[in-house]
Amino acid sequence: MTDTSPFNWPIRVYYEDTDAGGIVYYANYLKFLERARTEWLRSYGIEQDTWLRHRLGFVVRQVQMDLLRPARFNDELRVTVVVERLKRASVEFTQQVLDQHGTVLCQARIKAACVHLGEDGDAVKAVPMPTEIIEVLKRAS
């Protein structure tokens, strides 16, 4: 059985997220998207720190992001996560940041790769995702 409804994660815009005009600084949308993906994985019982102890992790390989409308200080937002494409060593997500009225403020396509982290912490090599993670991603796509 697959879950085709988007995962939703609430986020409030804090002062630190904004520029001098009180508008969310563009790079902070990437943080919002990352937090939602982390919480989405957590909702399926995947804790990234567990996999990091095995020197496995996800790295963002590609980002396409459209900023459509501004979010402002103290806004209540909702960030969605949907798995669009699943490969053996990578996954592509579509994500949106919406305001409290459901207006899309930002939309993004994120490609993340599963990697083995080298002993020195710097070297990374793309590797197939563990079966446990693949099964979760299949259920969610």
Automatic annotation (TrEMBL):
Cross-referenced NCBIfam families? thio_ybgC, YbgC/FadM family acyl-CoA thioesterase
The record, for Pfam families, names: 4HBT_2
Keyword Cell inner membrane part of the UniProt annotation: no
What GO MF terms are annotated? Answer: fatty acyl-CoA hydrolase activity
Full protein name: Tol-pal system-associated acyl-CoA thioesterase
Q: Which InterPro entries does its entry note?
A: 4-hydroxybenzoyl-CoA_TE, HotDog_dom_sf, Tol-Pal_acyl-CoA_thioesterase, YbgC/YbaW
Q: Which family does it belong to?
A: Belongs to the 4-hydroxybenzoyl-CoA thioesterase family.
Task: Please name the source species.
Answer: Pseudidiomarina insulisalsae
Which key words tag this protein in UniProt?
Answer: Hydrolase
